[in-house]
Amino acid sequence: MLDELYQEVILDHYRSPHGKGLREPFEGETHHVNPTCGDEITLRVHLDGDTVADVSYDSVGCSISQASASVLYDLVNGKSVDQAMFALDEFSRLMTGKGETEPDEDVLEDAVAFAGVSKFPARVKCALLSWMAFKDAAIRAGAKTTAEATSGEAND
């Protein structure tokens, strides 16, 4: 029954994606491709200080990659860079857990629906595509986590 609920969450995000469409302004943009299945995403990040003011994207691909981009938007848009990167780390941990990792629902919200995807290595790349694009675009936009900003270890 829980698997059915999770499948419905993924299908809802696929059918009615949140945040889709490229918008301006933005400081970082990237284009990622999953050559295994042909999923593609162009993703933009707009920062306002240490806040992810907007994430916009245009993508094509399977329901998992499309839904994952929608969930990413919900989880990082309007959050601090630190919160967004923490969500990315938690989602990555879930995806690499091979179905053995217990997701933190408080952090991941709808992204917990992807727990079953982690059992299928070929689909993990689909789910992670937008998240890796977000990380790349955030770095291009000059995002620094609190740890980087205070330690001076960030590359400019």
UniProtKB/TrEMBL annotation:
GO biological process: iron-sulfur cluster assembly
Superkingdom per UniProt: Bacteria
Molecular functions (GO terms): iron ion binding; iron-sulfur cluster binding
Domain NIF system FeS cluster assembly NifU N-terminal as annotated: residue spans: 6-126
InterPro entries listed in its UniProt record: NIF_FeS_clus_asmbl_NifU_N
Pfam families referenced in this protein's UniProt entry, alphabetically: NifU_N
NCBIfam families, alphabetized: SUF_scaf_2
Similarity section: Belongs to the NifU family.
Protein name: SUF system FeS assembly protein, NifU family
Species the sequence originates in: Stackebrandtia nassauensis (strain DSM 44728 / CIP 108903 / NRRL B-16338 / NBRC 102104 / LLR-40K-21)
Source lineage: Bacteria, Bacillati, Actinomycetota, Actinomycetes, Glycomycetales
